[in-house]
Amino acid sequence: MEKQVSLPRGTKDILPDEVQLWQRIEATAAVIFGRCHCSEIRTPIFEATELYARGIGEATDIVSKEMYTFIDRGERSVTLRPEGTAGVVRAFIQNKMFALPGPQKLWYSGPMFRYERPQAGRQRQFNQIGMEIFGTSSPKADAEAILVSLDIFEALGVQGLEVQINSLGCPDCRGNYRKALVAFFENKKEEYCSDCQSRVELNPLRVLDCKVPACKALNQDAPSIQETLCEGCREHQKELLAFLDSVGTSYRLNPKLVRGLDYYTRTVFEVVSGSLGSQNTLCGGGRYDNLVEECGGPPTPAVGWSFGVERLVMILGGKGNVLPLDLFVASLGEAAERKAFELAHGLRKSGLSVETDFSGGKLDKQIKQAIRLNAKFLLILGEDELARGECLLKNLSERSQGAVPLEGAVEAIAGLVK
Ligand SMILES: [Zn+2]
Ligand SMILES: [Zn+2]
């Protein structure tokens, strides 16, 4: 045999026994998005590199270390999308969707690419589903966005969900918090990890995000952003929480929640699941009132979130779902095989899932194959049956059987199996 070619590091085949769950996740999300009048948008897998440098922020890990960027044959710098929001924002501006009536609600689904060290649940090609609401600064939109994500997870049966909420303030009040943080770090800087030491200079809020245990312990005593919020930001959060209260959704205020991206203003949130033992962030997002303008559009407040499908599949225990099979068609002899082929084709057209024998082997081997495939019904057509002008239909779960005349067999069998 020739040497095999393996898949690229950090990528994964999604095999048939897992794809069932992927389809269920995608279909469930589409239904729930539709219920709040949120439309799907599909943007390109690659965009001009500049979009991400401007839209995500040059200082973020994503842009500085993790992007798949290359020069194409036309000497343009292009990047495989590392996340979904920037492309949707670009499409929103370029297609002048800001001129459409009312807030625009958009959702997307598809592969994203980041050059990271692969580990469990983290790949270089991964899939995200997300939503964005453009054109309203109302905290009601923040609440609706959070509830849509919860509705999707609940409909899929995810257990132990918790919503964590924080506010990162606005450009007016965030500066005050930044100052308070820098003052706090001042005399402890050496005790933090080297990454955090450089974060203090670039973006002190991100120190709160550090997963290093020593940094986490030090951060316990850090000042809370909740105390430095301005009146407007405080009011925004109060109203968001009141909307969540009105539908009985519980949440936890987490003043250490900062998210990895620079563009958030006011609300940030995560949906956390405790169902894999430790707490796992399932979904994250927030408000980004300045991003559309920074990307060249008119001032447009917005809020959005995304979740990683791979992690959700892990939580839902993705494997072992096989495609159900209504009927297996076994036949013996050339003439019978041709008639069986015709029946199978007709039954598929009538809406049944049907598999046939390809081996031409003995009947008992074909029956074993039907049982292995977990078929609900088995149709047998041998030379004797063909001569009598009938076929044999077995219900494999009830272990009952009966003869069906070949004349009008498709309608009769379709009726019996359905
Ligand atoms: Zn503010
Ligand atoms: Zn650290």
Biggest pleated sheet = 8 strands, mixed
> Helicity range of the residues?
25-40%
Gyration radius, to the nearest Å?
28 Å
Structural class: alpha+beta
Oligomer status:
single chain
CATH level 3 topology of the largest domain: BirA Bifunctional Protein, domain 2
What is the topology, as strand order, of the major beta sheet?
A: 1-5-6-11-10-9-7-8
Q: How many β strands by DSSP?
A: 16
Ligand names: zinc ion
Number of H- or I-type helical stretches:
15
Straight-line distance between termini: 46 Å
For the record, the count of structural domains works out to 2
At the fourth level of CATH, the homologous superfamily of the largest domain is Bira Bifunctional Protein, Domain 2
CATH class of the largest domain: Alpha Beta
Low-pLDDT segments, ≥5 res: none
Report the CATH architecture of the largest domain.
2-Layer Sandwich
Query: How much of the residues is beta strand, in percent?
Result: 15-25%
Q: What is the mean pLDDT?
A: 92
User: Overall 3D geometry?
Assistant: elongated
Keywords:
single chain; 418 residues; alpha+beta; BirA Bifunctional Protein, domain 2; Rossmann fold; 2 domains; 8-stranded mixed beta sheet; 5-stranded mixed beta sheet; 38% helix; binds zinc ion
